[in-house]
Specification:
With 405 residues, the protein is α/β, with parallel strands linked by helices. Strand 11, helix 7 and strand 12 form a beta-alpha-beta unit. It is globular, with a radius of gyration of 21 Å.
Length: 405
């Protein structure tokens, strides 16, 4: 038996709280159920314009988890999810996503929603075949496929070569202040530029090649419904993050993703569907806390958007994606000139960015708390691993690390 406290090393939380992860997932589910009632959303079974069967690749955390929750509990869809998680034992914890998935499946069963979750390498053809077999066993076809994979590694299914992704700037170092989530002090960090095959390898892992392969396999297996849509997630961001994101290695991968979206869109148009890249807002992630400047920008963004009444977390973003972009009354998906869905619109409003500029320019080691929403970004940082979640008794001893009660 033990009381589980967050273990933070080098500004990364390396453990998870089983009950906290489950509760955070349940809180998101309650939000989705509330939105359904509040907005009068009808499932397909209720005669509404909504997906019936959804595949979520990368379903366990972040935007992928929120997408699955929104599809199921707000729009009434049955779902199949895929993610690759470390399973716990009675005495040793698993990854946060394992607990999130378990909480989702439990809640779905209770709500009478069909769900299956596969703990597999989504980059593998074995996983593709497993999903296809499950869909055929259910006797269904997917009308929405969400691609939300983020991974440090990918093995090419044809060559069996392992590729590794990196988050680095291109051409020159990227440096600046970073905030220590424990001491609350500013440190100076510098990210060295990509070298060798860093860019190509990151594109291989995080680009659109695997997304394109998924749609090809699903299409050839006959498990895509007429009108099927597929969505992948991307980020552009403001001037502060562009050197390490949009103009860095990850940005090169996202540009590849957007280019391949056009190929996928062309293939899905043959069955009356389409493919889209959704450009989302900046959120606290496991990696953002160790990249120069990013957490300070996020702290300013949270502060400014909360003051303006337009702050959104994962669940609010995806709720808006479904309601205002994917399943609109006129059934038209609004996009920008590049064919991308933009739900980063509130983040990139000129007046929001102008206010952020004032805070970013004024930050120093003595006044950081005045200019950022430290409490907000720290809560999100801890919530990812099931800590600081409302409604959880963190002094209660955990006797079984596989249990979420």
């Amino acid at each position: 038996m033990a009381v589980i406290k967050p273990m933070i090393r080098s500004n990364i939380c390396i453990n998870a709280h089983p009950v906290g992860c489950a509760k955070d997932t349940e809180n998101q589910i309650e939000f989705a159920i509330g939105q359904k009632a509040k907005k009068g959303i009808k499932s397909a079974k209720e005669g509404g314009y909504a997906p019936k069967t959804v595949l979520v690749l990368g379903c366990s955390t972040g935007y992928g988890l929120s997408s699955r929750i929104t599809a199921a509990f707000e729009y009434g869809a049955d779902t199949i999810g895929v993610s690759f998680e470390k399973e716990p034992t009675v005495t040793k914890g698993g990854t946060p996503g394992w607990y999130n998935n378990k909480a989702f499946d439990r809640a779905a069963a209770k709500a009478g929603l069909k769900s299956a979750t596969f703990n597999m390498d989504a980059f593998s053809d074995e996983c593709r075949q497993t999903v296809i077999d499950e869909a055929k066993k259910w006797g269904v076809k997917f009308d929405l496929v969400i691609y939300s994979l983020a991974s440090p590694v990918r093995t090419d299914p044809d060559t069996k070569v392992l590729y590794k992704s990196v988050i680095k700037p291109i051409g020159k170092p990227y440096g600046g202040y970073a905030i220590d989530m424990i001491t609350e002090k500013l440190n100076t960090l510098e990210a060295q530029p990509a070298e060798g095959d860093d860019v190509a390898n990151t594109v291989k892992v995080m680009g659109g090649e695997d997304w394109e392969r998924w749609i090809k396999y699903l299409s050839e297996a006959g498990v895509l419904a007429e009108g099927c849509r597929s969505i992948a997630y991307s980020y552009i961001g403001p001037k502060y993050s562009q050197p390490v994101y949009r103009d860095g290695t990850i940005g090169a991968a996202k540009k590849d993703l957007e280019a391949r979206a056009k190929n996928i869109d062309a293939s899905l148009k043959k069955i009356g569907g389409g493919a889209y890249v959704s450009v989302n807002k900046a959120l606290v992630t496991r990696s953002s806390s160790v990249i120069p400047i990013i957490m300070l920008y996020l702290g300013c963004l949270f502060k400014v958007q909360k003051a303006a009444g337009c702050h959104e977390g994962c669940k609010e973003q995806i709720d808006r994606l479904f309601r205002e972009r994917l399943y609109t009354a006129d059934k038209v998906v609004p996009t920008d000139d590049e064919g991308r869905i933009r739900i980063d619109d509130l983040e990139l409003k000129p007046e929001i960015q102008a206010e952020i500029d004032k805070h970013m320019e004024a930050i120093n080691a003595d006044n950081v708390k005045e200019h950022i929403d430290l409490e907000g970004i720290r809560k999100d940082f801890l919530n990812i691993n099931g800590f600081a979640v409302d409604g959880v008794d963190y002094e209660k001893e955990i006797t079984d690390m596989t249990a979420i009660d």
